[in-house]
């Protein structure tokens, strides 16, 4: 599945990093960056958690 | 458990219904919301939306297709008006009755107001759009209340070229929340820009020309924004038998009664991590609580206490403020990194002998994320903040 990030909505909360460290990081201003765009079954649950907790609705997980 | 009703279609309610589906609930899920819109995000209302940097369509929490995929019985634009706890049914303003097996209350809060007509408040999309239309260069905005909401709105109005006056009853804005020292530093940001911040003044009413203070003085204004806190939306639960007292009172599992949960701004629950009951008006808490309550409702035998480290942020002028923990009632503040006067610092908060919170302004993300762990672990102050001990 593909992870989409709308960085301009990101409020730098870091919740996604807490939920899915292998997929998200933050730059020096705290804005989220994607470490992986494609995630396999092992990480999908973590990313779903990140989607759910992101306070800016900036993350989406899309089926391909 | 077949029929689940969620009342309140915003951040917390949405998180609840999404989690119900994610956890495999296939029965009916009814989502009731009195606003006519699909769930949208509130924090941008006092930031990007007010500044006209982002439009309403980008505030939707989920695209319409994602909402449709949840297969909800969606009742928007209709308020819940009553709850029959023994009969297990929610009454709606349109006269319909929704029987339920499980119920999640997510009705949030509404702004406190002042006597008198014509002032703005800032809670809904409509509120924000109305205020935005009235802000223009040279117009005089009086903001009553220098809390987070008032400070954010003042900052945006200033940026739009309005003349801004902020009236605050406390001697130091936000002192009860973040401590006097930090509050002083944050409020200096207003004064640096020429925003007229007047502390220790109490507004008694909104008048035709502006606002009246307790000493009788009238402060004239083109527009008035009242940002003096909020009241939980629990009126409709008054005779329900639920315990209501500054929010719906819940246990550590977020349960207000058998099969009834409350989440988000409206919920007052016992947080075992801090050993105290709290009601939190933070965006991330709404989502986390919605998720936790949905899980507890579906699997009562495996239910977990909700014991998070609260998090919030606020954007004021060029400052991004971030905090973890429960700062209210703290007994000591220590600056552990950076410099208060440069408005680039990290402050730690002590309650009892523990680290109860951390607040950062202008610090790199890792600096504050580390403290989340410290607070979650219930770390002793003397070990975590050696310089202060
Ligand atoms: C302008 C603004 C800026 C903010 N900025 C920040 C920020 O920077 N950082 C941060 O952490 N938090 C911020 N917040 C707080 C955050 O938005 C809230 O914590 C969050 O919206 C709470 O979500 P909720 O779903 O619990 O409640 P709400 O978002 O209040 O939603 C409750 C919903 O229930 C509806 N409702 C009420 N009564 C009924 C009824 N009887 N029947 C049916 N529906 C009903 C309401 O109309 C509303 O749509 C901000 C809030 C505002 C207003
Ligand atoms: S959770 Fe959302 S807002 Fe927070 S850092 Fe990640 S993308 Fe940004």
Properties at a glance:
heterodimer, A: 64 residues, alpha+beta, Alpha-Beta Plaits, two-stranded antiparallel sheet, 2 helices, 28% helix, globular, B: 389 residues, alpha/beta, FAD/NAD(P)-binding domain, Enolase-like, domain 1, 3 domains, six-stranded mixed β-sheet, five-stranded antiparallel β-sheet, 9 helices, binds flavin-adenine dinucleotide, binds iron/sulfur cluster, FAD/NAD-linked_Rdtase_dimer_sf (chain B), FAD/NAD-bd_sf (chain B), oxidoreductase activity, acting on NAD(P)H (chain B), FAD-oxidoreductase/Apoptosis (chain B)
Summarize this, please?
Chain A: Pfam families: Fer4_15. Chain A is built from 2 helices and 4 strands. Chain A is of the alpha+beta class.
Number of domains of chain A: 1
How many separate helices of chain A?
A: 2
Tell me which ligands are bound: flavin-adenine dinucleotide, iron/sulfur cluster
Helix run count of chain B: 9
> Helix content range of the residues of chain A, please?
25-40%
Helicity range of chain B: 10-25%
Rounded to the nearest angstrom, the radius of gyration of chain A is 10 Å
CATH topology of chain A: Alpha-Beta Plaits
Structural class of chain B: alpha/beta
* Biggest sheet layout of chain A: 2 strands, antiparallel
**What is the strand content of chain B?**
25-35%
At the third CATH level, what is the topology name of the largest domain in chain B?
FAD/NAD(P)-binding domain
Largest interface comes to: A-B, 19 and 28 residues
Mean pLDDT of chain B: 96
Number of domains of chain B: 3
Overall CATH architecture of the largest domain in chain B: 3-Layer(bba) Sandwich
How would you sum up the major sheet of chain B? 6 strands, mixed
Number of DSSP-assigned strands of chain A = 4
Distance between the termini of chain B: 53 Å
Ends distance of chain A: 6 Å
Pfam families (chain B): Pyr_redox_2, Reductase_C
Cofactor (chain B): FAD
Keywords (chain B): FAD, Flavoprotein, Oxidoreductase
Domain Reductase C-terminal (chain B): 311-384
């Amino acid at each position: 599945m593909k992870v989409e990030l709308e960085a301009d909505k990101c409020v730098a909360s870091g919740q996604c990093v807490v939920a899915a460290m292998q997929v998200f990081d933050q730059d020096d201003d705290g804005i989220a960056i994607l470490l992986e765009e494609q995630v396999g079954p092992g990480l999908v649950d973590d990313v779903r958690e990140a989607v759910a907790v992101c306070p800016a609705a900036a993350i989406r997980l899309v089926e391909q | 458990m077949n029929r689940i009703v969620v009342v309140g279609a915003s951040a917390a309610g949405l998180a609840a219904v999404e989690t119900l589906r994610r956890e495999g609930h296939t029965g009916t899920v009814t989502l009731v919301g009195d606003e006519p819109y699909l769930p949208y995000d509130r924090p941008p209302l006092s930031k990007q939306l007010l500044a006209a940097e982002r439009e309403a369509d980008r505030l939707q929490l989920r695209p319409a297709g994602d909402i449709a995929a949840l297969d909800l019985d969606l009742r928007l634009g209709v308020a819940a008006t009553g709850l029959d706890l023994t009969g297990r049914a929610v009454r709606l303003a349109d006269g319909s009755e929704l029987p339920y097996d499980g119920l999640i209350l997510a009705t949030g809060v509404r702004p406190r107001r002042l006597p008198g007509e014509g002032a703005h408040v800032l809670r809904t999309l409509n509120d924000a759009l109305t205020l935005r239309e009235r802000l223009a260069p040279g117009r005089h905005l009086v903001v009553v209340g220098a809390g987070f909401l008032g400070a954010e709105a003042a900052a945006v109005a200033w940026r739009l070229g309005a003349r801004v006056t902020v009236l605050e009853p406390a001697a130091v804005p936000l002192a009860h929340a973040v401590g006097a020292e930090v509050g002083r530093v944050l409020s200096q940001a207003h004064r640096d820009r020429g925003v007229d911040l007047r502390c220790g003044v109490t507004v008694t009413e909104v008048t035709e020309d502006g606002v009246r203070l307790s000493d009788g003085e009238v402060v004239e204004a083109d527009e008035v924004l009242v940002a003096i806190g909020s009241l939980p939306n629990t009126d409709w639960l008054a005779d329900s038998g639920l315990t209501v007292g500054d929010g719906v009172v819940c246990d550590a599992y977020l349960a207000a009664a058998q099969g009834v949960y409350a989440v988000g701004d409206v919920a007052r629950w016992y947080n075992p991590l801090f050993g105290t009951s709290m009601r939190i008006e933070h965006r991330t808490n709404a989502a986390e609580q919605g998720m936790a309550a949905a899980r507890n409702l579906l699997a009562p035998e495996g239910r977990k206490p909700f014991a998070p480290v609260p998090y919030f942020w606020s954007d004021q002028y060029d400052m991004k403020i971030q905090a973890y923990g429960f700062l209210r009632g703290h007994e000591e503040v220590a600056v552990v990194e950076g410099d208060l006067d440069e408005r680039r610092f990290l402050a730690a908060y002590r309650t009892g002998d523990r680290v109860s919170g951390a607040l950062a302004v202008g610090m790199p993300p890792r600096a504050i994320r580390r403290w989340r762990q410290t607070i979650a672990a219930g770390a002793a102050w003397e070990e975590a903040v050696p310089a202060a001990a």
